[in-house]
Sequence to fold (132 residues):
Amino acid sequence: MDLIADTTLLVGLWRKQSWAQSFANRNADQSIGLPWIVLGEFWHGAQKARHDPERVQQFLQIGLPILNAEPVIPFYARLCSSMQDHPSYKLMGQNDLWIAATALAFQRPLITRNRRHFDKVKGLRFQALLDG
Fold:
């Protein structure tokens, strides 16, 4: 696996947004893994928007592997411990901490359009996204 996806990529692909489709085309030779929490966030948004669950399930068959949480747990614990006394920790949601920990655990760049959510995480690398 070459890259780790944040929920923003899945949402962009679901909505057929030009930036997401362009990114997918430019990076077709790279494999992209999904943290389990990204899948949860995506399903939450789909349920909240009342999308047809069968259509959502069909969309998710695009072939992005769901990454195992087990190797991520120690990275999540270290990340939370190292950040809990910093003001930036309180600004970062728990889901984003899990996503960042996944990218750190698998030592791969994160694909996101919300980089500011992750900028305080030391050692986290990003894959550049270009709009449309």
Residues 19 and 25 are 10 Å apart (CA to CA). The chain has one domain: 3-127. The longest helix spans residues 36-48. Residues 3-127 form a domain with the Rossmann fold fold (CATH 3.40.50.1010).
